[in-house]
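for the writeup, i need someone to sanity check this before i put it in the appendix. the sequnce is what the collaborator sent (i think, or maybe the updated version? ugh). structure was predicted straight from it, no edits. if anything looks off just tell me and ill rerun, i have time this weekend
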Amino acid sequence: MERTRTLRAQDWKILEDALAALARATGLKAAVIAREPRIPQGACADAVIEIAEPGKRHRFFVTIKPIDRTVALATAKQQLAPFGGQGVLITRYLTAELATQCRAPLDLPFIDTIGNAYLRAPGLCVFTRGERPQGTAAHRVGTRGGGTATALRVVFAVLCTPELLNAPYRDIVAAAGVALGAVGWVFCDLQGRGYVMGGQRARNRRLVEFGRLIEEWVTTYPIRLRPKLNPQRFRALNPIWREKTRLPDGALWGGEVAANILTGHLKPATRTLYLDPATRRDGVAMLVKAHRLRADPTGEVEILDKFWTFPVDPRQPTLVPPLLVYADLLATLDPRNLEIARWIREEHITHALPPA
């Protein structure tokens, strides 16, 4: 995996502050022994640190990320997966709830700048949580720009169909289902935050920092856009109904079913379908009648509005775009899904993006 971002001075400051906080809270001294290391076998780390104990040294590979929601932990987990137990998240601040999720179910080592930490290695076990920032509120990722539902629709369309980046605004409006006036400010925001270059002349925009933009999209989608897609849940009385399902016209599989079709390595426990809002009512009625679905807020079948109109991949005509499959898997926080999510990102998302 090639590096997908350039670290800024404030990222290195977060790392330094986190290591200092670890020393204050636990007495463990840690040092940075490499920055942006070149690592073989397709892995990627921001730094390598070493924690010293009497007679022992523990080495960890670091990713530095802002974390303000659970799904962001899942993206950190999949990024550190190649390092096994030697990966560690460095972040500004984790709440007690997020720290607990790092320990279980994710088993994600972390250190923050306040003194919270979870570390596990042979002969080393640290877990502190509940420390709070003094004076000011914890840093949180903003919700403007890429965090609005409208911007998420536009960014999704551009990431899945890169030629839209330099298409007429009316084509983007049609593909993303947004108002014409929204497209310009979304591009201005992306340019201001370093995701889009060019734009002064016709057809010269370039999308950069793909990795950061993908991470922003998949961590923001579950809380800003997905709840607006009119989610409904059902329980299937026939546990093998999917294998016999005739989908309504325009319906597409997402989540675990789509991941299984793409990889062949995941037995779906949940079933996610995206239906065209214009025909959804009839489609849901057909599924309920044909497959004896019963409304159940905890059911394994979820139906949502399809929020884009660009064509599906003709090679997978019953699936949502891989970016949405990836986001659906990360949002589950199910450890069995995270490795499959990483594989989908590498094989079906990163390779499909144009060169910067």
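The longest helix spans residues 9-26. The two ends are 15 Å apart (CA to CA).
thx in advance!!
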